[in-house]
Amino acid sequence: MLNLKLLTEALGDLEEEQVMEMLQEFVATNPAEPEALEAVAACQAGMAIVGERFETAQYFVGDLIFAGELLTEAIGVLKPALGSGASAIAGTILLGTVHGDLHDIGKNIFKSMAEAAGFEVVDIGIDVAVEEFVKQAIAVKPQIIGMSGVLTLAIDSMKETVVALRSAGIDSKIIIGGNPVTKEACEFIGADAFTTNAAEGVKICQGWV
Q1: What are the φ/ψ torsions at residue 188 (nearest 5 degrees)?
Q2: 3-state per-residue secondary structure call for 53-75
Q3: 91-208 CATH fold
Q4: What Å distances lie between residue 10 and 32, 45, 46, 49, CA to CA?
Q5: How far apart are CA 173 and CA 189, in angstroms?
Q6: Domain spans of the chain?
Q7: Digit-coded pLDDT (tens) for 45-72
Q8: What would the pLDDT profile of 8-40 be if each residue is shown by its tens digit?
Q9: CATH 1.10.1240.10 holds for 4-82
Q10: For residue 130, with 0-12 CB atoms within 10 Å meaning exposed, 13-18 middle and 19 or more buried, which class applies?
Q11: C-alpha–C-alpha distance, residues 112 and 202, integer Å
């Protein structure tokens, strides 16, 4: 029997070996899909602990990146127990770092957490041109478009991208994230929501679908 509380704590403590061992033993028992989803939720709760520790400066960016990779690895182990996943897909998110910005740490952490929450994430990379966002949005038809940026110039890039998306008739919900993003910036850009915390961003997306 998987101890969910212990799993949450192990992931929060970044104990990779312990997390993997617990999940591999759990999957070997051929758990039912609802049980596997509980394990995913326990991992996400561990990720929330990581986020809190990062905010209080107990953890650093390197820990955050490692936690994102650990979460992705954990979900990978659980995938066989999650069935076809078709019923579990919460929605599709088109995700990219806006043009002029080459940072992808926050984007990658958000991607891992969104996938863990059951979203299908189409990651189009970094320094994504406005036209590329529009082209991919037309092709993918996502419920949600996520834009990431760390540099101050990302604010203008995000605004340009939102204007182009709306002009092309794309009505997906738009969430923006990254260091320079504030409530005022969000209003200026014309996005539906903003976040500086990946876990909070995923919660906002879940609220939309």
Answers
A1: -65, -40
A2: HHHCCCCCHHHHHHHHHHHHHHH
A3: Rossmann fold (3.40.50)
A4: 22, 11, 7, 10
A5: 13
A6: 4-82, 91-208
A7: 898 898 889 879 999 888 988 988 898 8
A8: 999 999 999 999 999 999 999 999 888 988 898
A9: yes
A10: middle
A11: 10
CA torsion through residues 27, 31, 33, 42, sign: negative
Indicate the length of the chain as a whole number: 209
Q: How far apart are CA 94 and CA 170, in angstroms?
A: 12
Q: Which of 37, 20, 39, 151 is nearest to 98 (CA)?
A: 151
Q: What single-letter amino acid sits at 195?
A: T
Phi (first) and psi of residue 194, to 5 degrees: -140, 160
Residue 86 predicted with pLDDT over 50 = no
pLDDT of residue 27: 95
State whether residue 87 is helix, strand or coil: coil
